[in-house]
Amino acid sequence: MAFATYSSLKDRTVFITGGASGIGAAFVQAFHDQGSKVAFVDLDEAAGQALAGTLGASAWFRHCDVTEADALQAAIRDAAAALGPVTVLINNVANDTRQAAAEVTPEAWRKGLAVNLDPTFIAATTVYPMMRDAGGGSIVNLSSINALLGPGELPTYSAAKGAINSLSKSLARAWGPDRIRVNALSPGWVVTPRQLELWLTPEAEAEWSKLVALKDRIMPEDIARAALFLASDDSRMMTGQNMVVDAGRT
Ligand SMILES: NC(=O)c1ccc[n+]([C@@H]2O[C@H](COP(=O)([O-])OP(=O)(O)OC[C@H]3O[C@@H](n4cnc5c(N)ncnc54)[C@H](O)[C@@H]3O)[C@@H](O)[C@H]2O)c1
User: Fold this and answer.
1) Fewer CB near the last or first residue (10 Å), C or N of the chain?
2) Ligand 1 center–CA 93 separation, angstroms
3) Is it the case that residue 205 has pLDDT exceeding 90?
4) Is residue 116 within 6 Å of ligand 1 at its C-beta?
């Protein structure tokens, strides 16, 4: 197989949340490979430093808990000061810990939204003036097919992802006149280290395989390639959409 190179992404400053592992790490690598200047934050300092170390001087990493709004805003502004105004934002961070709906306390609900929803809005509003002043930009918000399917053991996560779909539409309308595009990107079940460790058993994968049209595994790089397209000028008239990459599950 052969994949696209987007000349519009060269030298563009890209900010990615939760970029140290999983799909986020594939985003970091993919934008780096396109010649973008990549900044990313993560709670996992060791994994973040290790990844940044493989990329060289053009990569920028900071340990940051995205549930702390001030720290996330400061990271975005400092990354822009170091690399140039952020014109691509990938809101990737999430935590998909399962919890039975009846057991979600008010505190657990708030904690779930604090990592799965709030950072998307905070990061978007922080990059907005930079993108406006730069003449435009692209925001890609990681959603999930779970926003469409609503699995019972992921009530907070699914609610957050549904909200991300709606928020993407709302911001697309609000900021379209500034040539800022905002799209959601919804993966199906992606084979990441965390999924393999916690939930993607051979039995679960066999069940998934019965439900999808395409039988190959969805890899983090498959999601990254969709994000490259949404970030690039090739998708310049596309905004307010939910791009689903799920092997035909939904
Ligand atoms: N993996 C899948 O099958 C799948 C399916 C649908 C949607 N998605 C979405 O894709 C995105 C990436 O998913 P993933 O599977 O790679 O996730 P992951 O859990 O493997 O990685 C998430 C990253 O975010 C970091 N992180 C978690 N909490 C943080 C915090 N408070 N502050 C800073 N960093 C924090 C983690 O350290 C990790 O590096 C998420 O938005 C997820 O909801 C994933």
Assistant:
1) N
2) 5
3) yes
4) no
- The alpha carbon of 95 and the centre of ligand 1 are apart by a number of angstroms equal to 6
**Which class would CATH give 10-242?**
alpha beta
Any atom of ligand 1 within 6 Å of the Cβ of 187: yes
**Can 157 be counted among the known catalytic residues?**
yes
The alpha helices in 62-199, defined as continuous H runs, are 69-83, 106-116, 118-134, 146-149, 155-175, 193-198
22 lines ligand 1 (CB under 6 A): yes
| Across 64-93, average pLDDT | 98
Strand partners, 243: 185
Ligand 1 centroid–CA 222 distance in Å is 15
Query: Residue 181: what pLDDT?
Result: 99
Asked if pLDDT for residue 211 goes beyond 90, the answer is yes
pLDDT at residue 15 in the model = 99
Has residue 96 got a pLDDT over 90? Answer: yes
Task: Out of 157, 175, 189, 229, pick the active-site residue.
Answer: 157
Q: How far out from the chain centre does Cα 227 lie?
A: 8
- List the chain domain ranges: 10-242
Q: b vs e for 143-169, b when ≥16 Cβ sit within 10 Å of the residue's Cβ?
A: bbbbbbeeeeebbbbbbbbbbbbebbb
